[in-house]
Amino acid sequence: MSASDLERELADLKQTAIAAIATAADLDRLEQLRVQFLGKKGQLSQVLRGMGKLSTDERPRVGARANDVKQALQTSLEGARNNLEAAAIAAQLASETLDVTLPGVGRPLGRKHPLNSTIDRMIEIFIGLGYTVAEGSEIETDYYNFEALNTPPDHPARDMQDTFYLPGGKLLRTHTSSVQIRYMERHAPPIRIAAPGRVYRRDTVDATHSAVFHQLEILSVEEGLSFTDLRGTIVEFLRQMFGTELEVRFRASYFPFTEPSAEVDVRWQGKWLEVLGCGMVDPNVLKAVGYDPERYTGFAAGFGVERFAMVLHRMDDIRRLYASDLRFLRQF
Ligand code: 2NL
């Protein structure tokens, strides 16, 4: 092949290659074209192989032309690659575009159930009075629910606290006193604890009774505690709960685990309303957990959480608290 034939071939190669590169639809196709034209066995190499037969004065000229073609193709390939990459990014951006002006998906905030907010309010007050929160299992043994609380099997108070019995002698706790018994077994006096939680009674359900309800009990044991300390604690708690001007009345009562015992009423909307029971811890209870009743005295009180929630929010029926009716619950 003559030098001019080779030069024509180079010119043709340049033209076809640039046309093909310009129409490449993607990067894979572009790589194919690069191999086809510039690869080791590509078309440019083939043309260069024909240069061996040229004379020494023709060779540099044709060689320079070949280099020009090579550079033109490289420039063209690079430009095409840049364009295709930019187009790919633009396409991805377009397909993933978010319209930030669209209205969002509403995620309404929940709120505390009125029973939990009542428990929280009660606990806050007792924490302010130096109490620690203690919790425990809803499944208990007869010992921790009754016997350690001075309530042996034949005790008449068992009738009022009949509960749900489980296989293996277990039962559902009738008060959170069992948590306090377990706490005393593990801690030496002085102690001050508040035990909130769910409790159970075998009870017929009506507007003011539920077989499942909530209680908060407090217990304080140390040297020298008297009924005065109990009274001061209860009055302070009730004033923080209901208001500073509150009238409070203590009436003598009976519980198996306290002696003496009292029930407490508050003057609320013109009527005396019973809100809790309390008393000095019976020495038998202290003995059962290994405390020395000659050295230590204690007081305890039990509050019905539903009772407090109903009085504070003027609810007419305890069952509303368990019905999960948002039209009702959203009010609190
Ligand atoms: C009520 C009021 C009360 C207690 C609970 C208690 C707990 C221990 C020791 C002594 Cl560990 N007492 N709790 C005391 C008096 C009243 O609850 O109406 N209960 C049926």
From TrEMBL:
GO terms for biological process: phenylalanyl-tRNA aminoacylation. It catalyses: tRNA(Phe) + L-phenylalanine + ATP = L-phenylalanyl-tRNA(Phe) + AMP + diphosphate + H(+). It is found in: Cytoplasm. Its EC number is 6.1.1.20. It comes from the Bacteria. It holds the Pfam family tRNA-synt_2d. This is Phenylalanine--tRNA ligase alpha subunit. It comes from Rubidibacter lacunae KORDI 51-2.
